[in-house]
Amino acid sequence: MQVVSRGQSTGPQGVLLALKKSAGDEHAVKQTSSSLGGDFVFEKVLPGDYIIEASRSPWIFDVVCRPVLFLHFTHTVTI
Q1: b/e per residue, 7-31, with b = 16+ CB within 10 A?
Q2: How far is CA 67 from CA 33, 36, 46, in A?
């Protein structure tokens, strides 16, 4: 998965993405930013249920939170 701009096949650079255990959590397990094209990576993620929250001021997102499930320990996850 990647951050994608509405009506496009790619997304913007510089969107802050926070991997959290639940919506509304103030503490992020991991954080990263999207690269050119909207791609992003979380490294060394343990198995479990998480949500990804996207933000970039002053933008408004159609989808702010997206649930994800990691089934196996992984050193690098591209979402």
Answers
A1: eeeebbeebebbbbeeeeeeebebe
A2: 18, 23, 15
Q: How far apart (Å, rounded) are the C-alpha atoms in residues 57 and 60?
A: 8
pTM of the model: 0.78
Question: In angstroms, what CA-CA distances link 24 with 3, 41, 72, 77?
Answer: 20, 21, 25, 23
pLDDT in tens, 41-62: 888 888 888 999 888 988 887 7
Provide the residue type at 33 as one letter.
Answer: S
Q: Which of 54, 12, 10 is nearest to 31 (CA)?
A: 54
The structure tokens listed for 72 are 């196996």
